[in-house]
Amino acid sequence: MEGPERIEYEDRSQAPIGVFDSGVGGLTVVREIIRQLPGERITYFGDTARVPYGSKSRETIIRYSRQIVRFLMTRGVKAIVVACNTASAYALEELRPEMEVPVIGVVGPGAKTAAEVTKNGKIGVIGTEGTIDSGIYTRFLSNLRPDIQVLGKACPLFVPLAEEGWLDGEVATVVARKYLEELCHSDIDTLILGCTHYPLLRSTIAKVMGESVTLVNPAYETAISLRRLLQEQGLENKSAWMTEYNSCEFFVSDAAERFQQFAARILHLTTEDTRQIPIEEYQT
Q1: How many distinct structural domains can be found in the chain?
Q2: 48 is a domain residue
Q3: CATH number, position 159
């Protein structure tokens, strides 16, 4: 496909940051970017037609990610954040050599912080089946500190709970206790929330795990790493006029109205301009 004409910015610092996720969970990353980098534009794509990624093959996730990156590049982005843990695990290293802009994922920043804060070297990771099965956090953590012990647990029902808004209460607590029981008795002192939906359930997870376990939110750590990256490469937008109301644009592959409802709860922004696009047309 020829595709639409690519947007170009004379001043690259004025260009948006591209963020993508398998659906709506990546909005927790957008929320942290807005908080930490309030002067930046953001172009977000949620692959709502093909969610979840956690049960897809590595080859399929790489193909999906390449299509999304090609679309984001038509929007003139100056950097890309792979906000999906599963896509970060399977596609990030494939994408990085192909990219003309810097690209970061959510796994590295979260792993780095966990390695720094753990006192006993025992770290838990919760995420989708794809993220846990990939072993990506274990590899990152082992490279940072070979002495670290990692215990992973897939918690697939956390995603629908978050999307339904059942963030606390009896149902969320029962599910969390069932999933986290093994981790509660494993002597971990740090737990990585290895899915972008999971920070929405932070209070319930914290209650179940107890005060002795430090929760690490990769969304927050990614925003901090992104700020550092933009500063190092001279890409930070220092425009004083930028506000949250004109700094974000949203695209999805399906169900724009449902996306808008979820985004309104998470970001407290107007997202009525969310556009649905035929993402499979963006072949490489």
Answers
A1: 2
A2: yes
A3: 3.40.50.1860
Cβ pair 273, 257 in contact under 8 A? no
Of the candidates 82, 85, 81, the one whose C-alpha atom is nearest the C-alpha of residue 125 is 85
Distance CA 125, CA 228 (A): 25
Active site residue ranges = 84, 195
Could you say which DSSP state residue 44 is in? E
Shared-domain flag, residues 212 and 124: yes
Mean pLDDT of 199-222: 97
Contact of 85 with 109, CB cutoff 8 Å:
no
Task: Report the phi/psi class of residue 224: left, alpha or beta, with left for phi > 0 and alpha for psi in -120 to 50.
Answer: alpha
In a domain, 2, yes or no: no
pLDDT > 90? residue 244 = no
d(C-alpha 214, C-alpha 142), whole Å: 19
pLDDT, tens only, 177-203: 999 999 999 999 999 999 999 999 999
* Residue 271 pLDDT grade (very low, low, confident, very high; cuts 50, 70, 90): confident
Helix crossing, 136-144 with 107-117: angle to 10°? 50
Place of tokens 């690490």: 216
What is the extent of the structural domain holding 46?
12-106+221-281
- Looking at the fold, whether 75 and 118 belong to one and the same domain comes out as no
**Rounded Cα distance, 79 and 95, in Å:** 13
3-state class of 216 per DSSP? Answer: strand
Pick from 21, 154, 127, 37: nearest CA to 80: 21
Q: What is the pLDDT of residue 54?
A: 78
Tell me the pLDDT band of 106, cut-offs 50, 70 and 90. Answer: very high
Nearest-CA neighbor of 49 among 68, 76, 28, 69?
68
Distance CA 240, CA 39 (A): 7
pLDDT at 1 over 80: no
